[in-house]
Please model this.
Amino acid sequence: MGLEDELEQFHGTTRYYKDFTGLLFTDGINYLADRADCYWLIVLVGSYQLELEDVPFQLWEVKVVEELSGLLTMREDTDEPVLARQHIACTGIVNLMGLG
Model:
């Protein structure tokens, strides 16, 4: 079973975590950061919080664009427009998800 399949078990959250800046994130994000060694993703999302401080609920998504690169986007909800977008040159997540 790949990481993508493992992440399917997370719907909602049973526990919130807080990074050094005070950013709250779910147990699914914590699992992803541990499993894929991508704490950089939490830091990256945190770097957007000053400009998105009026958006209390945020859906962040990383999509693999090419072999090792990705696209990070944020929306207020699944049917809402993208409010933040950033290209990621090397995610490190690709091989764990069985996509590389």
